Every structure is written in structure tokens, then in C-alpha cells.
Amino acid sequence: MYRYILFIFFCLFMSIFVLGGTGTLGLQIVVLGRKKNLDVTCLVRRPSIESDSLTYMGARVFFGDMNDESVLLESLFGCNIIIDAVTGRVQDSFEKVEYDGKLMLLRFAKELEIDRFVFFSLVNAEKFDTIPLIEAKLYLESVIKKSSVPYTIFRLTGFYQGLITEYGNPIIDRTKVYLTDNNMPISYIDCMDVARLVLRSFTSPKFLNETINISGLKAWTPKEVLSVCEKKAGLKARTVYSSIFNILAVRFITSLFESTWYITRKLALIDIIRRNTPDLMVDPQPMFEIFQIKPSELRPFELFVSHYYEQAFEVLFKRYGGSVEDDEKEIDKWRQKGVSVSEVPVSELEKE
Fold it and tell me: For residues 139 and 298, is the Cβ–Cβ distance under 8 A?
């Protein structure tokens, strides 16, 4: 009853500002927030299909650069919770996004007396402080904690959605899946579950000025992820193996030229998996206790993959009109014309 009253209060008086509302996590926060009839404001770079969807959902959308003080301040007006879910693009200036822009956002949060500043970092970030992106997150964590702004820092591992891009799509597209000699387990989670937990944290003071780990039900290695995707898709992946040494060599070459430094920064993330340690394998029990949820409330990876392939194949069948009955009718029509039609074994298709 107490939580229900708090949630009603939250819905009536809280206004959320989401920076990065078109991103993987930010979009889910906006979607869930609007479903709960929350007042949501977003700042995005420029008009796009994604920004149109935010407007369609009922969110207020401002367009502009997060480093533009006037635009940022105008979009923050009337909001009392800031959720920083922005991620710099490959071509963006790293320092401009991760340092200048976010420090200005934190300064405005202090001046406007924001009720909560939400920041996302990486689990066990201290163990990866040689990576520029993680180093920036650690620095911002320290600045946030030293400021007088009420905050909640969520440390994440990885999202199911990223695995679909890396493994799921290439399998049904019959393109190559690239693997390394890495066998590092990571506790992936559905970003929709993360969004739900983030919104739930606003209804309790126990999350105030805390750093909390959010992770999935179990840890997965790359081979285990690939195996699940193959099983649910009913197809064999076309895998290509590359050693981490080769990737490190490419990173060294790109570091020699200023025009390719952005590639070097992206490849710096290889230092996470080259350790091949369980630093991103997290026990979810403390998360269950602080959020007061049960394991059954989180979506398992197997179910997520099954749902994804069901939707993907449904789209393909609708697009190409592919049903078993239609195929049989087409075969009969050609046979009546005297054309010899034979089935191709699945093993031959997998060789393509």
C-alpha cells in the first residue's frame, strides 16, 4: 500500500528529462514512462524516425546539441529528474560528449535543484580504468558523488539487444558472425527490465545517493550466446574466428593516424574481454533484495531470443508471402508445366 501511494505521488508530480532518448536504453525509459503517464522530456540531436516516435508517444522533444547551454537549459525547464542515457557516436568528439557536455548537465542539475540525477556506468569499472570511456565514467562518478546533487548511479553489464545485433541478425541474414578466443562470461540483461527498475527506484528513498549493480539472471559466454541463437533460429551460424592479437594489431595501426583515432577508441573496449575474467559476472541476489523483485520478473535470455526470432520470421513471411501451402502450390504449378523440381537438402543450404 505504501509503495502504491508513493507511485501515485511520483506519477502526479515527477517530470523526467531523458538525455539519449533515441538510444537503446533511453528509448525504453521513455516508452515505459509514457505508458505510466509520466511527463517525459527528451533532447535529441536532430529530427529522425526515432525522434518522431518519441513525439508520437507523447514526450516533449527538443532538438539540439547537448553542449549548447541555451538548448540544454531550455529543455531542462520544468523537469525534476535527469536521466543521462546518452552515448557518443563514433564520429563525435569523445571529450566533448563524455566530459564537457555531462559536466555542464551536472552543473545545471545543481543550479536547478534537481531531485535526482541518474547516471549509468559499468560494473567493476575500477578494473577497466585504462579504457578511455570507462575512465571518463569513473571520473564522472566521482564528480557526481562530490556534488550536492541527489543521485543514483546504476552500474550495468550488457544488454540482450546488443547480442541480437552481434549474433542474432547475422544468423538469419546468412552473414558472418565474428568470434574471438574470448570466453568471458557476462551477465546480460534486457534493457526493458533495466528501464523498469530505474523508474521503480524513484519511489523509494533507499536508492538516493547510492551506487547499484543491475545484471541479468545468469552469465553467458559468447559460445553459449551463439548456441542459443542457433537453436532458436533453427539455422547454423557462419562463424569466422579472429584472435584478439589481430584486433590489437589493428588498434595499434589506427592509433598512428589522427583521422582514425575514433576507431582506436572503439577498439579500446577489447581490453574488457581480453582479460578473460569474470569481472562482468554479477550475483543478482543483492539486486533482487534492494528492488524487492523475484527472478521470475526478469526476462530470461532464451525467451528474449525466441520472441525476437518469432517476430523476425513473421515479418519475413509477410514480406515475401512465404507459407508452406503457397510453396507447394507453386511447385505443383511448375511440375504441371513439365519442369523438374527437386528439394535442396538443408545441409547444402548451410554451405551457401
Answer: no
| Sequence-distant (≥ 6) Cβ neighbours of residue 43 within 8 angstroms | 17, 18, 19, 21, 61, 62, 63, 64, 66, 71, 72, 75
Residues 6+ apart with CB under 8 A from 49: none
Q: What single string gives the DSSP state of each residue in 124-178?
A: TGGGGTTSHHHHHHHHHHHHHHHSSS-EEEEEE-EEHHHHIIIIIHHHHHT-EEE
What does the angle CA 188 – CA 280 – CA 130 come to, to the nearest 5 degrees? 125
The SS3 assignment for 302 reads helix
Q: From CA 335, how far away is CA 340, in angstroms rounded?
A: 6
- Give helix 102-111 / helix 132-146 axis angle, nearest 10°: 10
In the block, which residue shows the cell 535526482? Answer: 116
Dist CA 287 CA 308 (whole Å): 26
The answer to whether residues 214 and 154 touch, using CB atoms and an 8 Å cutoff, is: yes
What φ, ψ does residue 83 adopt, rounded to 5°? -120, 110
More confidently predicted of 301 and 264: 301
E strands of the chain, at which residues? 15-19, 39-44, 60-63, 81-84, 116-122, 151-156, 158-159, 176-179, 188-189, 210-213, 238-241
Q: Phi then psi for 60, rounded to 5 degrees?
A: -80, 130
Grid coordinates belonging to 295: 527472478
Cα end-to-end span (Å), the chain? 59
pLDDT band of residue 181 (cuts 50, 70, 90) is confident
Q: pLDDT tens across 87-145, in order?
A: 755 445 555 566 788 899 999 999 999 999 999 999 999 998 888 888 889 999 999 99
pLDDT in tens, 5-60: 554 555 556 899 999 898 899 999 999 999 999 999 999 988 888 889 999 999 99
Under DSSP, is residue 89 helix (H, G, I), strand (E, B) or coil?
A: coil
Residue in 215, 28, 19, 40 with CA at minimum distance from that of residue 117: 19
Q: Give the SS3 label for residue 216.
A: coil
